[in-house]
Amino acid sequence: MNHIEPTSHSLRYRKIAKQAFKDIIRPYLQHHHPELIEKSFFAVCSSVAYGLADEYSDIDTILIIPEEEYNVRETEWVNWAFGDPEIATFRQRTKKDLRIGISTWHREDIGILFDGQGSWDDFYNDHLHWVQNLIPIYDPCDQMQIISDSLARMPQGFAERAADRYAGQLEDIRCNLGRLSAPTQKRFVGLLSYSIVNRALPLLFHRENVPLPFHKWQWALAKHLNAEAQSILEQLRVMLEEQMHQISFPEGLISKGAKMAASLDIPLPMGIKLSQDQFKQALASVQWHLQERGCYQMVRARARGWHESSLKYLCATRCLLIKGAILLETEQVRCGENVSVMWDNIHENIPGLEDCIWPRKDEDPFEKTLQGINIFRERMEDKHALPHKYLENPLSSPPSYDLACILEEL
Description:
Layout: H1 8-32, E1 41-44, H2 46-50, E2 59-64, H3 67-83, H4 85-94, E3 98-103, H5 112-115, H6 120-123, H7 126-132, E4 135-138, H8 143-152, H9 158-167, H10 170-178, H11 182-207, H12 218-222, H13 227-242, H14 251-260, H15 276-303, H16 307-330, H17 337-346, H18 353-357, H19 365-382, H20 388-392, H21 403-409
Parallel strand pairs: 2-3
Antiparallel strand pairs: 1-2, 1-4
């Protein structure tokens, strides 16, 4: 990967984080937890550490404390990080949202680097990229060196296996498309645009032996990969733009999608009716991800001028709207080609939603997708599908029982 020159905002925010440690975090440790002074770790992470921060960026930091301490006083630590008056005053003075994450290495899914417990195959994801790019501000136990030494001992071959999992799915979409009629095939490729990008981007990183970043930053960081990767990125961008409106997909696009795409998400149980408890929890997860992962990220990416990222989140929101509508109307989970087939059967139950998902060329696809989210929420309210309290504040927190957990239990 080519060198990334940090933005001026990144450099300024790193200085603010250092000042926050000096003014707030270290004094807090010394006064309330002096026994942890030599056991803690504090670093800058996310966009500020990657060098990609802009005027919209928050300052994300992480304070790592011992596992036993976190287990005993988790609530106390979280209340301090989110409600301490000094932190609030610091944010007002610097006019930036300083976020202090309180965690442990195991809670960040990288405990294997310290005790060897766990599977390297499970570890090779965005956590590896995250930990490699931490910028330590306070590291008395030299924990970054421990991380570096552990990463040097990673077993050979597991990164290739991760890439093979993505590449092995390329034939899945080819087979799925072959079983569909031409009209459904065109719609199916449109629905798959998000999954196409989500499988193609990881392959670009794996081919250069670069750890996969968190999904939010994949496109921006992929622009620093080699020339061949840039050519593929351009193809992906064109594909995303082509499916923004109700258009006929040319055969070349379908062929390109078949070669680059994976099946829609992971294989899921199909046609299994959920219990009422599972149904409500699954729907709550869909609603939260629509707002937080879809709407929020889409709007922010568009405001920042991140054209490709905003298109990717737009596709993600559309896919989730369709899956959520199927879940809402049938109380069943559907995937693959069954999504298009089932959508044909139920879309008239939610008037106006299909027009929001596939708007006309003279309509703004972003505005129409936001309208689609509102239509979906109104349908949930009509069916009393979610507790009223949750609907009042859908961005408050993610449901404790994620849809993925529900699916794993079925």
